[in-house]
Backbone:
């Protein structure tokens, strides 16, 4: 369907595909992974490798999500660690089943706090092309396009993030314009929420939408810097499609079930 290929393309923004990690780690391993990807993109492949037992897999997934999204590791004795680890990461993962489905198989439900930390987005775009909505003219099927992307992301990687950061730092250093950049990002995020009809009175809805709004704002900034060969409208259409698809995946509440 193209999930892992898309992850490899995402990883290529900042580095080689060897940065694609497995869910098969311990609690300490989760902290080490997050710490090692601080201020970057953490890509995990195939959620089912977490545990063969659905109940344990659900419990572990929930624990790891809260651990990684908390931004801080557990306090431990100074005999073992000299400082408490902290991090900020963007997490993207793949799985045959959604986190909501894993929770259901484990006879549980995802809590709202967890839902807005790691959001389920369906991988099928419902266009008969797997994860893709359309194909470039030179490709007749999704499989050959996925193979092309796989080869290209293995050959070319690590340049987009560097170019983006160089432009970002240069703009911030221009007459100390950090606040101007923040204001621009906030404006783009507000436009995203407004165009998508987000209920501004609902804290959960705003937090849920902000994950996509921030990605959209960052994409618009990358377009402005000439790092992405798209228009701002292209960025909005792609990310808003993912947002709307994610909304349709939100699981039933306890009351609805």
Residues:
């Amino acid at each position: 369907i193209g999930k892992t290929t898309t992850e490899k393309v995402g990883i290529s923004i900042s580095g080689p595909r060897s940065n694609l990690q497995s869910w098969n780690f311990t609690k300490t391993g989760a902290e080490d992974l997050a710490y090692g990807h601080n201020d970057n993109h953490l890509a995990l492949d195939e959620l089912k490798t977490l545990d063969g037992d659905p109940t344990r897999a659900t419990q572990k997934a929930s624990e790891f999500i809260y651990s990684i999204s908390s931004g801080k590791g557990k306090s431990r004795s100074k005999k073992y660690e000299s400082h408490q680890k902290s991090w900020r990461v963007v997490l993207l993962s793949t799985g045959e089943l959604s986190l909501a489905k894993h929770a259901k198989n484990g006879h549980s439900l995802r809590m709202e706090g967890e839902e807005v930390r790691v959001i389920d987005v369906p991988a099928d775009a419902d266009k008969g092309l797997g994860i893709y909505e359309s194909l470039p003219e030179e490709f007749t099927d999704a499989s050959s396009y996925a193979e092309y992307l796989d080869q290209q992301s293995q050959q070319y990687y690590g340049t987009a993030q560097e170019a983006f950061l160089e432009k970002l730092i240069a703009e911030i250093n221009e007459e100390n314009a950090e606040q101007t950049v923040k204001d621009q990002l906030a404006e783009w995020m507000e436009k995203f929420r407004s165009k998508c009809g987000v209920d501004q009175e609902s804290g959960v809805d705003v937090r849920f939408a902000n994950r996509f709004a921030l990605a959209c704002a960052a994409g618009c900034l990358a377009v402005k810097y000439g790092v992405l060969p798209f228009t701002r409208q292209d960025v909005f259409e792609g990310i808003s499609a993912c947002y709307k698809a994610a909304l349709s995946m939100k699981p039933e509440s306890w009351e609805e079930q």
